[in-house]
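Researcher: Next sequence.
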Amino acid sequence: MLSCYVLGQSHSHLDIVNPKKGHFRWSSALSIIQSDLDEIDLTQLLSRHGLSFGIKSNLTVKLNTLFSSSWTNYPISSGYKTEYHSRFHLLTLGLSKNISTAEKDYGVLFSIKTPLLNRQFFYLDDSLTLEEEYFNYIQYGVSFYKLSPPLVPTIRFSQKIFNDTNDYQPGNELNLNFNINFSVTDDWTLLWGAAFTNKRKSVLFNQINEPEQNNIFFNYGILYDISQKLTFKLGCSFSFSHEDTSILSFRSTYRL
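Model: Next structure:
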């Protein structure tokens, strides 16, 4: 996100991280996720879209959505069976504030968001079940980035805290990310980093539905500035955990 500034162009890093006051920013991301869970193969397409508006130069309001398509291949007595599902999951509202200034060579970004609508899917007696929730969690985060051309390291911590009263109660989540951007040319930036996630146990009818999970992800990718307003990102990541997971993601951001 900071490649334009690092490469010596005229942008302030505040304008790269946040939309300008009175301006909109649109982003779209498509992720392809492949997971192997014992004898079950799961392939997912996650489609995320976001619209941001600059209330001030350092204060942004955001709307985000999440859609998914999934293919689950699992063994049965006569061979294998594949199930397909397409779902709308999430609409969230959030705020973010950057406490840095254009003259500083670093930034600290605070964010908070909550779901206006959260459609939670889970299996009950081998049948896919849906529960709809509103404002059922708060996710807050803090990010620190340092401008040291051609490198821009970023550290981010976030936590998602649920307040569910329905039958299915997801576990709280904690995330810690470290990433480095390396500017190669005026248009190309290399990305790499690592992430740790902790998801507490999920409960269904007061019984453990999913155990607590810890995952470590390593990621790498490239970022290409097509123009001063349009950026494209290609990323890959893989995990070391109880399951084998690989992610290929495509992301585009347009600044109005």
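Model: The chain has one domain: 3-255. The longest strand covers residues 79-98.
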